[in-house]
Amino acid sequence: MNRILLLCLLLVLPAALPAAERAPGVAAIASAHPLATEAGHEALRAGGNAFDAAVAVSAALMVVEPSGSGFLGGGMYLLHHAADGRNVVIDARETAPAAASRDMFLDSDGNPVRGMSTNTALAAGIPGEPAGLALLQSRYGRLTLRETLKPAIRLAREGFEMYPRLAAGVAFKRAQLSKSKEATAIWLRNGEPLPIGARVKQPQLARTLERLAKEGFEDFYRGRLARALVAAVQKMGGLWTLEDLAGYQAIEREPIIGYYRGATVISAPPPSAGGIALVEALNVLAGYDLAKLDGVTRKHLIIEAMRRMHRDRALYLGDPAFTDVPVQRLIDPDYAAGLRTSIRYDRATPSSSLEDAPDAAAAGMNTTHFSVLDAAGNRVAGTITLNAGFGSGLMVDGTGMLLNNQMDDFSIKPGVPNIYGLIGAAANAIAPGTRMLSSITPTFVEGERGHMIVGSPGGSLITGMVLLATLDWLDGRSAEQIVAAPRIHHQYQPDVLSYERAALTLEEVASLKQRGHEMRERESWGNLQVITFDAATGKVDAASDPRGVGTAGIY
């Protein structure tokens, strides 16, 4: 009898496993460019797992989407290790150089110097992406760095076709790119961006990648490449030193975890604001039955939740190694209940009426994101960035790599907005070795339905997009529907509701205006990359945002 009972239990156990832990049996990748997606697939075909694919995709994106990320930048990788069910974040965020100071971008009168925190070598933080990839590859991957960098090396050496989105970015950043002979030779022809369809070859970048494949990322931080980088950055007026590079470390952190409508939400911790803001907004919305509300009231409440999450971002968040971030208070449902007391169904809350509301300006966007799932159930949500498009736009000649301008993500002066219109306070002030605050929000959402891997570029708009995607997934929408859904956004300051035209009907616009919202229709934004797993059917779905040029593949 005992044997029979044991046999029955063994037969039942697989079905009793949490949806998030079941192996999907197939793999999927969604990224911002078809060639980057294919690079990840190449790593999987070579016997690699999701973590190897993440390294391959990251490197390939530097080649084919240089406006969004690169090895002279940073980011965060949210990982799910299927073998033990562990979720962990690799923090590869940049740090301020040791010679950085709080007022380094201010003039003698204490006012920000235009362009200094965005268009100069002073704007470059110490890169974290190579260290993050080294940790990812060595601790979780199966392949060698030679194998995972192989697709990116080939793309840099043999080239790819210039496409309209990239050409538009080159045109926008032409003045900065023109300061480098190497960048000019790659991206411009007679002073104009390469024509659509022209072959983009990056021989110097290919050689840099080949060297890293041979020597490892140690060369980037302590070897000959490190010495070349420091010499070039100092020549351009930057603050980097060999000690800055040698002292950089990627950090494994515990993710932010929240709960909403029976689902578990797993996202990025500080120095990203994304996870805290996302959970806080969901906690606010948990006090309403959104399914029973009319469409305009539902959107009004989502807007008010966004307003409050961005207000707290501005006031409380920074590098946890240098400031006391009240994480548990901000993600506590009781705290959200207090925030709800100031929300009216019939009226917008003026941002100026919330405590300590400073002024700010308009928002912008850049960065890149990819999502990976392998057949064993390992997952990666990776958001990597140079900050603005092409970062500072300054190329380190001889390497093919572009400098980030992440120092602008600090609060260079309390109440003064960065290029994304985001404001900050002392918690995000510049200090030597500090990691600047970010909005990146790589996220897993797990529930009875299965799970979703999601993230996007977009600067200050990122967390709001992930919030909307989470609500859509919980409402039963497919990956394709989630990435294509029209978007709304509010970031506390400026006190403006931004929306894509298809997001609101004329009647909804009129109703929201009547409630006191200042409205601004704007061009589409974001580039969501989504993978979903349906626990009931075992189906894996993947989609890349139609606003971009990326692709999603299921293998």
Uncertain regions spanning at least 5 consecutive residues = 1-17, 357-365
Number of DSSP-assigned strands: 22
**For the terminal residues, how far apart are their CA atoms?**
43 Å
Shape: globular
Textual characterization of the structure:
- This protein has 555 residues and is of the alpha+beta class.
- It has one domain (25-159, 201-555): Glutamine Phosphoribosylpyrophosphate, subunit 1, domain 1 (4-Layer Sandwich).
- The chain has 19 helices and 22 strands.
- The strands form 6 sheets. Strands 8-3-2-12-11-1-22 form a 7-stranded antiparallel beta sheet, covered by helices on one side. It has a 6-stranded antiparallel beta sheet with strand order 9-10-15-16-20-21.
- The model is unreliable at 1-17 and 357-365 (pLDDT under 50).
Write a concise synopsis of the structure shown.
This protein is of the alpha+beta class.
Give structural attributes.
single chain, 555 residues, alpha+beta, Glutamine Phosphoribosylpyrophosphate, subunit 1, domain 1, six-stranded antiparallel sheet, 19 helices, globular, disordered N terminus
